[in-house]
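Working notes for the structural subgroup meeting. M.R. asked for a predicted model of this chain before we commit to crystallization trials. I am recording the input and output together here so anyone reviewing the notebook later can reproduce the run.

Input as submitted:
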Amino acid sequence: MFMEAHVFAVWDFMSLLKSLQSRLTCVTVPWTPSAWPESRRFINEIVLGEESDVYDGRSVSHFELYLEAMEEFGADTGPIRSLLRRVEGGRVETGRFDAGSIGAPIAAARFVASTFALIQTGKLHAIAAAFTFGREDVIPEMFRELVRDLDSRLSGKLGKFVWYLERHIEVDGEDHGPLSLRMVADLCGDDEARWEEAGAAAEAAILARLALWDGILGEIEAGRTD
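Returned structure, recorded in token form:
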């Protein structure tokens, strides 16, 4: 149940990341250099890892690997794959995103809606703040030993999920944290209004994350009593 909800957060993270890449770097032709050299390098590094990391000798995105981990464990990937088909078919309007319409858990649908609402504002500094402070820096560390124990008791059925968690601990624990803070500082500069908006976006992202965890917990507890 956790994976079936959390996968939507893994997916919408990529749209948050791509919204930053499209603004901090140049993805149009003819090319011109952007105004934030350090931040554009940072974002490109994250895109490289998230979209085309190397696992077992092959290139794969963390999202695709997460789907494989779900299938390895027997979790239902139907709703998230339905969403992908709708996106590929141009049947999803980001301004009116409704993950619930394709069977996503309520908590996941609300979380995704909050992410896309932020992206739609177009405020780069606010998006960067949500990206920086709303990431899952603590959660992987919390789950690592629990998932390792489960993987051992379930004969390796969670092997890919363990790799996913440990990979995020590795990359987030090195220089991504300080660089993401510097990115927010670059984008806000000396503008007090931008700092206030960035702070509000960071708080909203953390509250959305808490609501997601609480919602998943509620569904798990409800499932235990059925």
